[in-house]
């Protein structure tokens, strides 16, 4: 085709202003990956910086860990349903919100830091236990341990672990059964929380108690796995599969309600196994035969 | 250090459960979770079970619940006293409000029904993690009610 013909400048790129196009192309959906495929250097860098900050600094490791157990006790564990005064179970939505805030704080330290999930059902985990990235290096490495506030205890000043044998971690068949076959939210949440409790009790050390667990770096990847399993359950049984009475409950201290955290796409992250992005300007536009001038 | 206590139920008549069910749960209400983290192993018709008993159906093992404990009290006196909230109190429940655990125990209950006419439920606690803040005389497990529920 000769230059100047109506067919010489075909393009599938939209006519939107460049600022709009750029924001669409660069819109960041953070993909949380298996710890074995995650960007560990970025995560390490972010955790290192957070852990170096002092306890009162609201960007610090200790500041954010303290929301969970010692000393703010905001987490939702064991506050369940069933004829009790508080007839709802916010274990899953509360921790989803908590991870979201924490991940944003980490990303402010290193924009490529994204929470990875630790699949404790994987063959590797059942061989070696904790992910190698979280056991390598010195004892005060930012993935091996985290600082604890002096008011919790003076010594040791960082978290410790005392894990059981790898084969005692939850099995894939049992977890698959929970995800695939339990169809109501409260039934699913109750059983998944039990598996969650099992892993805390498996790691032992500081992970073994609510008070100190969030100071251990593996806490976040453990809960990322729990969040992922809820997501997989939602894919199978419905994103909004939750009692309607839950929807407007607030997830204090987070400025979010249960309804706000149901759809992770609206929270800007996913658990997609892989993703390839191809902007429109990398497409060739070819006129169809029927559209060619005769 | 905790004092694990094996909890053995009285004889439970199985006639009310019937044999036609697709799922059977053993539920615990009012479980305390203020102290140590422990596994509560549930055995049906095996009051002699202890922490060394193999967790097999032949031994009556029905499943486990896990209590992720708070690890003791880190506050001043009264910090861990649990009380109901008043009607106009907007705060979330006290973090130590007793919990509920459900153990899906279909195979073990079905075996008990087949063996009939009664059964016992035994809870064997296995401590997984504890702290210096847990009272030395902590007794495990602590709960208010156990139920066996079947679903058709």
Secondary structure elements and their pairing?
The complex is a heterodimer of chains A (294) and B (152).
Chain A: H1 18-26, E1 30-31, H2 40-52, H3 61-65, H4 91-109, H5 123-128, H6 172-181, H7 185-203, H8 210-213, H9 218-237, E2 269-270
Parallel strand pairs in A: 1-2
Helix pairs in contact in A: 2-4, 4-9, 7-9
Chain B: E1 3-4, E2 7-8, E3 12-13, E4 23-31, E5 37-44, E6 61-67, E7 99-104, H1 106-115, E8 118-119, E9 121-129, E10 139-140, E11 145-151
Parallel strand pairs in B: 1-10
Antiparallel strand pairs in B: 2-9, 3-8, 4-7, 4-11, 5-6, 5-9
Short description:
Chain A has 294 residues and is an all-alpha fold.
**Oligomerization status of the protein chains:** heterodimer
Terminus-to-terminus distance of chain A = 13 Å
| Main sheet: strand order of chain B | 2-9-5-6
Given the structure, what is the number of helices of chain A? 9
């Amino acid at each position: 085709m000769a230059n100047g013909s109506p067919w010489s400048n075909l393009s599938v790129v939209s006519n939107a202003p460049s600022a709009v196009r750029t924001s669409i192309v660069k819109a960041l959906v953070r993909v949380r990956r298996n710890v074995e495929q995650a960007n560990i250097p970025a995560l390490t860098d972010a955790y290192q910086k957070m852990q170096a900050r002092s306890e009162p600094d609201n960007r610090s490791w200790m500041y954010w860990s303290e929301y969970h157990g010692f000393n703010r006790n905001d987490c939702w564990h064991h506050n369940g349903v069933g004829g009790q005064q508080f007839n709802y179970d916010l274990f899953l939505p509360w921790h989803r919100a908590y991870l979201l805030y924490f991940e944003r704080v980490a990303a402010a330290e290193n924009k490529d830091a994204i929470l990875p999930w630790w699949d404790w059902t994987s063959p590797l985990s059942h061989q070696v236990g904790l992910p190698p990235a979280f056991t390598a290096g010195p004892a005060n490495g930012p993935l091996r341990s985290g600082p604890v506030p002096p008011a919790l205890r003076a010594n040791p000043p960082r978290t410790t672990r005392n894990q059981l044998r790898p084969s005692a971690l939850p099995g894939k068949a049992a977890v698959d059964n929970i995800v695939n076959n339990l169809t109501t939210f409260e039934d699913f949440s109750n059983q998944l929380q039990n598996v969650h409790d099992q892993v805390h009790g498996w790691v032992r050390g500081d992970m073994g108690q609510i008070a100190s667990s969030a100071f251990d770096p593996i806490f976040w990847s453990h809960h990322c796995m729990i969040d992922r399993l809820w997501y997989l359950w939602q894919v199978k049984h419905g994103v909004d599969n939750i009692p309607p009475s839950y929807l407007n409950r607030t997830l204090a201290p987070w400025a979010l309600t249960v309804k706000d955290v149901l759809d992770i796409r609206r929270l800007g992250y996913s658990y997609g196994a892989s993703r390839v992005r191809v902007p429109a300007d990398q497409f060739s536009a070819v006129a169809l035969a029927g559209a060619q001038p005769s | 250090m905790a004092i694990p206590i094996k909890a053995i139920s009285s004889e439970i008549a199985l006639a009310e459960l019937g044999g036609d069910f697709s799922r059977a749960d053993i539920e615990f209400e009012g479980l305390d979770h203020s102290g140590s983290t422990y596994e509560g192993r549930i055995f049906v018709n095996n009051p002699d079970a202890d922490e060394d008993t193999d967790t097999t159906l032949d031994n009556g093992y029905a499943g486990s619940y896990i209590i992720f404990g708070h690890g003791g009290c880190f506050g001043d006196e009264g910090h861990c006293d649990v009380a109901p909230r008043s009607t106009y109190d907007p705060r979330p429940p006290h973090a130590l409000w007793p919990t509920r655990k459900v153990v899906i125990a279909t195979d073990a209950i079905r075996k008990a029904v087949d063996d009939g006419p009664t059964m016992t439920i035994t809870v064997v606690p296995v401590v997984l993690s504890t702290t210096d803040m847990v009272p030395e005389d902590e007794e495990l497990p602590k709960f208010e009610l156990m139920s066996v529920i079947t679903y058709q």
